Amino acid sequence: ARILALMPTKLLRRSQNWLLAALTQGDWSARYAAVGITSEMDPELAVELLGWALKDKDERVRAAAVRRLAKLAKRSAKARRYVRARLFNDASPKVRAAAAEGLGSSGNKRDKELLVAAARADKSRSVVGIAAAGQLLAMGDTRGLKGLLKATKAKDAGTRARAYRALARWNHAAKRRAVLKRGLKDKSGGVRLAAALALAKLGHRDGQRVLAKAVEKDGSQPALAALAKLKVPMGKRVKLLARSKSPEARRTAMTAAVPALGAGGAMALLRKGAKDDNVKVRRAAATALAKIAVQKPTVAPLLRKLAKDPDLAVRSAAAVGLNKLE
User: Fold this and answer.
1) CA atoms of 184 and 199, how far apart (whole Å)
2) Gap between the Cα atoms of 266 and 262, Å rounded
3) Which residues fall within 8 angstroms of residue 231, CB to CB, at 6 or more apart?
4) Which among 293, 298, 140 is positioned nearest to 317, based on CA atoms?
5) Per 3-state DSSP, what percentage of the chain is helix, strand, and coil (rounded to 5)?
6) pTM metric for this prediction
7) How would you classify residue 281: left for phi > 0, otherwise alpha for psi between -120 and 50, otherwise beta?
8) What whole-number distance in Å separates Cα of residue 73 and Cα of residue 53?
9) Which residues contact 183 (CB under 8 A, 6 or more apart)?
10) For the chain, give me the number of helices (H) and strands (E)?
């Protein structure tokens, strides 16, 4: 499909029936992928095919089509009409929210009024109203601000998290930061993380402790990326991963320990990893220890213990390290 997408336009037009079949048949993931391929096509043809995708029974496919159409809307009146229609006429709130987010990037006066209507129509301040109000803030329009502030006090944690993410678009820097800092005290961990991520995206360190706890809890990749954006040293990030409850995060820590901390600084983490209950963590620790065996001969006792591990891959990695010491 990607090869077809790179073909010259004339050849591509002959292949449109093939891609149209992909958009109307198969499981949802195939149809979703077909929507993505339209980004490599002639824009006019892409709009026609995405129009078919808007009829898909799966909301994920329709939402993806709306997001792609929104990118084409500045150059295509037809794409713009499709996105505007989905703001009010789709059964799925996720699709309508995608339409709101797409219209927010247009800067069009009519689109702004449509967003105001969507925000006001959503009395429950669900995903659609919050998305519309957030886009209005990004456009410098505060008509949806009151609703967003109320949404930060909603009973549903998901609603509160979405509201804080939307408020991050407010162009009043001091008030925006104060509101987001309030989110760091929310009773829900998910809401606290949403506020911390929003603050980090804006370059503020107020939520750094929340981000660190999220990494320790489950190896949160968004939190880890936010810490990197805040220029938290790699060594500190690796230590957070090593303390995580997520085996995959601990495995990553073993792999990154030596590059981040040096052979000597990594020893404490690798010793702990060598005793980990998870076999993938032990494999990574054994591999790292084997790589520094010549540089740090004191790893020999650890390697000998790992050479008796129940797992063959762990034993093999340990044997490589021991052979270097002979």
Assistant:
1) 10
2) 6
3) none
4) 293
5) 75, 0, 25
6) 0.84
7) alpha
8) 16
9) 152, 160, 164, 191, 192, 194, 195, 196, 198
10) 21, 0
Least Cα distance to 49 among 61, 6, 59, 60 occurs for 61
- Please check whether residue 262 is in contact with residue 250, taking contact to mean a CB–CB distance below 8 angstroms: no
Q: Which residues are within 8 A (CB) of 218 and not within 5 positions of it... i.e. 6 or more apart?
A: 244, 245, 246, 249
Return d(Cα 314, Cα 286) in angstroms, integer: 6
* 154 CB-contact burial (10 Å; exposed 0-12 / middle 13-18 / buried 19+): middle
Q: Which three-class secondary structure state does DSSP give residue 127? A: helix
Residues 6 or more apart from 210 whose CB is under 8 A from it? 184, 192, 193, 195, 196, 223
Amino acid letter, 310: P
**CA trace torsion 144, 149, 153, 158 (10° rounding):** 60
pLDDT in tens, the chain (326 residues): 554 454 445 444 445 555 666 666 667 887 888 888 887 778 888 898 899 889 999 999 999 999 999 999 988 999 999 999 999 999 999 999 999 999 987 767 889 999 999 998 877 678 999 999 999 999 999 999 999 999 999 999 999 999 999 999 999 999 999 999 999 999 999 999 999 999 999 999 999 999 999 999 999 999 999 999 999 999 999 999 999 999 999 999 999 999 999 999 999 999 999 999 999 999 999 999 999 999 999 999 999 999 999 999 999 999 999 999 88
Show the DSSP H helices in 54-92 as ranges: 59-72, 77-89
Residues in contact with 229: Cβ distance below 8 Å, sequence separation at least 6, in sequence order = 200, 201, 203
